[in-house]
Write a structure and sequence with these properties.
homodimer, alpha/beta, Nucleotidyltransferase, domain 5, five-stranded mixed β-sheet, 13 strands, 41% helix, globular
Chain lengths: 316, 316
């Protein structure tokens, strides 16, 4: 029996999806369309309004609450300050959707929505102190402490991918050097693999075979070559686990969570990183921070943003 | 007019102090004694009980609330799990003080008490999102987000000194390598200065002159030689600002505070580290994290633990 339906919307770089989500975090019905290049906000809003009516009708409820996850920086007023993959700057998404739908709408960053989903319905369920780290091409995070999701003064808390892991180290896509993302993000794993293949051509056969050419080596190539037993890929995975583990030490010591949840495409491709990085953290974090700590794989994967946005809307 | 007095107690490695603190965070009266080596908990409790009566009498109030700051790990039940400088393990300080005083007592870690003091009465006053970093021999921190002081699942949140700054880097006194503390803590500055003096004897005259001998070089020596214009000390201070700045990038990006407050003996000796590390952070942190961020020097210095413990007791 699920009485409290709500609508979760995911406005991402590849697709826009509207899902009806039940009170247990299950997607009951959904509609989606490809995002397309530089989508016009008005067109996106029109799609959401239409899909919300059609998908929402299945609930039998007149007007379920609406939560929207956006791949970009969102302020507390629901304005999308910047979303590079959409080409959006300062789009007042919440105000425009509220006008179009005639009801209250919540707009949040998609990583925070995914973290909310893991907290309410996934690997974080039942805990009041958790950190979720999503490792895809980039690395994002969110922090729940004492039952509060941290927002920060400007609603941008949780950028754990851009914490310094190696002062003065590898250049990051942000302005810093040596960020966690610059070692374990998908783009960084690919970069490290290409550098290693260039430096050791004799050892690079597996990676080159899997990718076709050095320039085409990606994090997926590394995962595939590692699965096939390639030693260079194996070393890259080990080093990635070391870097991620050193990052988990920071998370554990600074925030003392009960659970650290690891998700995202890199973790899906290399799930062994969960146990391997947890082992590194267990050797090096403070005993007080390790007491009762579990490092877990994320449970909800691709549906996390719509599930989290829907959960937020239901509670908000 | 200050109506809400409370008592703040600081049980530290060098002194035990009982202070009557007014509602504006001012110390009105105090009593103290040296801690001594391996102090017996019963003797410390007896001193606190006597001093609380004498000092508290000045308030005119019958029984002001009591907060105790301890240099060690304290659990939520007020048990001192470990305090290396006192030689204490598993001392039920709260229960014993409550029995002896006949009223409710709060016991907290001294760094968290100092952070609470800065939040309520110091450089963090009026803000709901701040991080305080205390850089003495060791480095401790505390985090306030959305008006909540982060405690963590096991009450040990805030160990920002033991976040990884250089993966695989300098050995820390904890089990990790490359901690922030292993670069900017007082012991680490001293170690780095001794290494530099050993590596470049021709440049080490200023440091050796200030210390008397290489083995006696401390963070204070570096500050003194830097004040006298010594180039090697100047380089060590610059490098320390770089490391600290790289750490502030992490704090800003992960937590998005409105204020970062820097205190402790190293900052008192080298106050220029505040502006220099803030400049590094301003170049490298995410624009969203920098928007509205102020990096400030702590305001309360040595009295912070008693002021914070008293403020906590008043509010708790």
């Amino acid at each position: 029996m699920t009485l409290r339906w709500s609508l979760g919307v995911d406005v991402g770089g590849t697709k826009i999806e509207v899902a009806l989500v039940d009170g247990d975090g299950r997607v009951v019905e959904r509609d989606r369309r490809p995002t397309g290049a530089a989508p016009d906000p008005a067109g996106v809003i029109a799609f959401i309004v239409g899909a919300a009516r059609a998908v929402g009708a299945g609930s039998g409820a007149a007007a379920p609450a609406v939560g929207v996850a956006v791949a970009g920086q969102v302020d507390r007023a629901g304005v999308v300050r910047g979303a590079p993959n959409l080409g959006w700057r300062d789009v007042p998404l919440r105000a425009e959707l509220e006008r179009a739908l005639g009801r209250r709408v919540l707009v949040v960053n998609d990583v925070r929505a995914a973290g909310w989903a893991e907290w309410r319905h996934g690997a974080g369920r039942g805990s009041d102190d958790l950190v979720a780290l999503f490792i895809g091409t980039g690395v994002g995070g969110c922090i729940v402490s004492g039952g509060h999701m941290l927002e920060g003064a400007g609603n941008s808390a949780g950028e754990l991918g851009h914490t310094t892991l190696v002062a003065g180290g590898r250049p990051c896509h942000c302005r810093n050097r040596g960020c966690l993302e610059a070692y374990v993000g998908g783009w960084a794993i690919a970069e490290r693999a290409r550098e290693a293949s260039r430096a050791e051509p004799a050892a690079a056969g597996g990676l080159l075979g899997a990718a076709g050419a050095l320039e085409r080596i990606t994090a997926e190539t590394v995962a595939a070559a590692h699965a096939a037993g390639d030693p260079l890929a194996g070393r890259l995975v080990c080093e990635t686990a070391e870097y991620l583990g050193a990052g988990l030490v920071s998370v554990a010591n600074a925030l003392n969570p009960e659970r650290i949840i690891l998700g995202g495409g890199v973790i899906e491709g290399l799930p062994e990183l969960v146990a391997a990085s947890a082992a590194v953290a267990r050797e090096r974090a403070l005993p007080a921070a390790l007491d009762g700590l579990a490092v877990l794989r994320a449970a909800l994967v691709v549906d996390a943003p719509v599930i989290g946005a829907a959960a937020l809307a239901r509670e908000g």
